[in-house]
Structures are given as structure tokens and as C-alpha cells.
Amino acid sequence: MAEKSSAAAAPRAAGSSRSVTSGPSATPDRPNFAFPKSSRLLRKADFNRVYESGSRVPSQWFSLVFAARPDGPGGPRVGFSIPRAVGNAVVRNRIRRRMREAIRLELPGFQAPVDMVFHPRRNVLTAGFPALREEVRKVFRRCGNS
After folding, report:
1. N- or C-end of the chain: fewer Cβ atoms within 10 A?
2. pLDDT score recorded for residue 51
3. Domain 37-140 sits in CATH 3.30.230.10
């Protein structure tokens, strides 16, 4: 007669997923280019406040609405609004990834306490990445000076 197996007695196989290891932390000669949740606009109320009290900055590949944050200190927070008219979900996600990367790389040099909502246009996909990054840098300067 066969013995009953027990889950506790059976040897366990190794997990199939890779272990999570943290990368090297930021050092003075290597800034941290993360895009944490604290740097993103997530709540509808925050988006509405930016739209109601914000200023608009037009650009070749996107428009930007920004507003100073009333609760004072802290770095900038960024949100995206990409309408369906721009394209299907695949196109909108590609646009969002390109914009997020350009913004992520420029955030360490911009520390004003403002909330920003980017409205990318479809032609942002035709823009070269260095040119897109430069355009983000320009609008960040305009936001910091206002």
C-alpha cells in the first residue's frame, strides 16, 4: 500500500522567480534617477487642482499644465493625460514610456514644489529622444521661473 505524502515532509523545489536585489544606491558622483510614487500625480483631486489653478506651457511635442503645490516643500510631481484620440492603448503606452523616461532623467535637476500634468501629442513618437529631453528641460526651466 502506498504511503500518504505530506506537504510538510516533501522537499520543496527552488522558487522559479529571481530574487529581488537592490541596485547600488545613489552616490554623490552617481545621482539616483528613480521615478518613485512620491514624484507622480495619482489622485483625481490633484489633477483637478492643477487644471483649475495652473498655467499652461505649450511645446512642440506636448503641452504642460503646472501649478505650485500649496503644501510647500518637496520636489515636483508629474502626471500624464493622453486621450484616446492619440491612438490605441499600445500607442498611448509607448508615448507614456518615452515621456516618463525623458522626465525621469531631468527630474534630479529640478526641485521646485510644483505639480505638472503633461499632455503629449501623437508626434512625440517621431521626436528624437535627445530633442525630447531638451524640450522637457526647457519646460522645467519655465516652470521653475514662474
Report:
1. N
2. 94
3. yes
